Amino acid sequence: MLRRLGLRPRLPGPWVVAQQQPVTPKPLDDFRLFAIIGAWMEEDVIAATVANAFAQGCERVYLVDNDSSDATVAEAVGAGAVLAEVFATEQYDEVLRLDIMNRVVSSVSEESGSDHVWWLWLDADEFPHGPRGTTVREYLEPLDRRFRIVGGRFINHFPDREPAYVPGFHPLDFQPLCEEHLLGCALRHRKHPLQRFDRGGTPIVSDRGFHRATSAERPLLEPTEAIYLHHFPYRDQQVTRRRLALLCSTDETGRTRVQEGDDAADGMVPRFETLDAVYRGDWDRVRNYRFDGEHSVARPVPWTSLAGPEDVAVRRWYATESAEGRS
Fold first, then answer.
1. In the 8-state DSSP scheme, what is residue 195?
2. Are 140 and 194 in contact (CB under 8 A)?
3. β-strand pairing of 116-123 with 191-198
C-alpha cells in the first residue's frame, strides 16, 4: 500500500527474464558479431581461443591484456586478434578489467557504423558454440530482435589423460570430462556471454565475470535456449601450475596477486590448492567453485552425457583428422 501511494520506493524487478523464441520470430535484418577477450599469462591457449571465436562466426576479436609478460599478446595477434588495450596492475583487479573491456566495447560499437553489434565476452580459456550443431552466429541469425542478451551453459572441464592439452587445438579434443555449473539467473546460467549493442538504444554494461549485466532497460530479455560455454582452466600440468602459482603464491612482501575475498579468489585459490588432486583424478579432494558458502567437490562426467547428440557436434577451425596426429 505504501508503494502504491508513493511513500516507499518500488523494489526493482529482475535484471533478466527468459522468454521462448516466438513461433514467428522477427530477427534483425543485419548485425555484426565481435568478440572481446580478457587475458593474463595465457600464451598456451589464447591462439586457439581466438581461432575458435572466428570459427564461431566472429568478424573481429579484440584482446584486453593485463600486461602479460609471456607471449600471450603475440600469440593472440598472430591468430588474428586486435590488441585493444594493455593495462598493468600489481594485483588482480576485476573491476578495472571490466571497466576497460566495457569501454572498448562501447567505443568500437559506436565507431563500427552498424546499428546492431552482438558482443561475445570471453576469458582466455573459454570456448563457446551454439546449440544443435550451430556456430554462435548461426544461432543468432534467426533470433527474435527482442533478445539483447543470451545465457551460456557453463561447462567446466577436467584433464584425465596425457597430454592434457596441445596448443593450437580445441581443448575438447583432450578433455571430455566435465561438470555443468548451474548458478545465476532463473535458468541457472552462470554467465551471459552474448550482449547486444543497439545504436540509439539503452546501453548494456557487462558486470564482473560476465555473469550478469546492468542496463536501464530492465528486465533484459534472454531466450530460453542458451549457447554452450566450455571452460578449460587446467591444461598442461606444468603450465597450469606455473600460472596459478604466479596468481596465488605469496611474494617477498607477503602479498598474493589474488586477494582473499575478491572476485578471483573463490575459483583460482581452491583450484591452485588442489591441483595435485585434479591431475591424479582424486575428485573427492578437488575443491571447486563456492556454492552457498561451501566449495563443491568435482563430480565430472563425459561431455556427451550433458547434451543431446545434435549439440555435441562442435565446429573446429582445422580438419578433425589432423587432431589424431597430435603429440
1. E
2. yes
3. antiparallel
